[in-house]
Amino acid sequence: MESNLKVANSADSPQIVFLKRILGNQSVLANESVRMVSEGIQLSVHNFIFSTLENEPEEKTYLNFFPVEDGRSYLQLSFFPEYNLKESDNFYQIIQIIFYPEYFRQWPQDVLSKIQPFRFDRSTEQAINLPPCSREPIVSLLNNNEPTFLEALRQHEIATFLLRLSLEAFLNPDESSKMPACSFLNNSNEREKVLEAHSIILNRLDNPVTIRELARQIGMNECYLKKGFKAMYGKTIHELQQFERIEKAKELLKLNKYSINEVAYKMGFGSASHFSTSFKKIAGMKPCELLG
After folding, report:
1. What domains are defined for the chain?
2. For every one of its 292 residues, what pLDDT tens digit does the chain have, with 9 covering 90 and above?
3. DSSP 3-state assignment of 140?
4. CB burial class (10 A; 0-12, 13-18, 19+) of residue 99?
5. Confidence (pTM)
């Protein structure tokens, strides 16, 4: 299908880092295309090549919410299709829609804050399953051959429709959106426990908490905690813990106030070598590359 998407060179962008974290090291970004759907809404199409068939991605949507400075925030939807790559196919295609702060400015703050599904003091990531009715609109976003006002309206409506579906799945999981192995998350109290676990992890980045200790603090069975955490955040407790520790370490290194050894110590790593290995694995670069 033809498209007027422009190829972008952003292999190290936060969006690509996120996709590679989900897909794994076996994935290789072939190309990325980006365009603005309307003010504050960006569409990105990423084509990946897999060198192996291990860890085949499942059909799923990831919802990421990122609070930024001065009360501003943006939301990212990542649509992973069912993995059915054949030898004749070239790419595994992932579509992302990003809703920037400009998009949310069209509503009064009291509307945005009422029944707010997110915390503004932390990022949110959750894997959700959308109903089948979402598939055609997702694909139709790629068809933008007629740059007319009516087509622009249609594209804007589709993006907003997919945002609404995703928020509804996030807030009110039902048989079409919940994780089969984690139906207990339909209970708001259980979801709150997992959210509490996430908060504890973020507050203990310099002194990582064990799963046993975490389960005891929130009052949840370890097995349920691990399954629920993976369902809500798209990664294991250890994976999220390590990712957030490295993100915090990157912030400290960019200040140019601390050495690599000091940052490793501040983030609770036993040695600089262990820190460097973890940093390279998650950030895709060595810690020294961030030092001025």
Report:
1. 6-178 (no CATH), 183-290 (1.10.10.60)
2. 333 333 344 446 778 878 877 787 667 888 889 999 999 999 999 998 875 544 566 678 989 888 766 667 789 999 988 766 554 456 788 999 999 989 988 888 777 766 566 666 667 778 888 877 788 889 888 876 667 888 889 999 999 999 998 988 887 755 444 444 456 666 667 878 888 999 999 999 999 899 999 999 999 988 888 888 887 777 789 888 998 999 899 989 988 889 999 999 999 998 889 999 989 888 888 888 877 5
3. helix
4. buried
5. 0.57
CB neighbour list of residue 268: distance below 8 Å, 6 or more residues apart: 205, 206, 207, 208, 245
Mapped onto helix, strand or coil, the DSSP state of residue 74 is strand
Alpha carbons within 13 A on the beta-carbon side of 228: 25
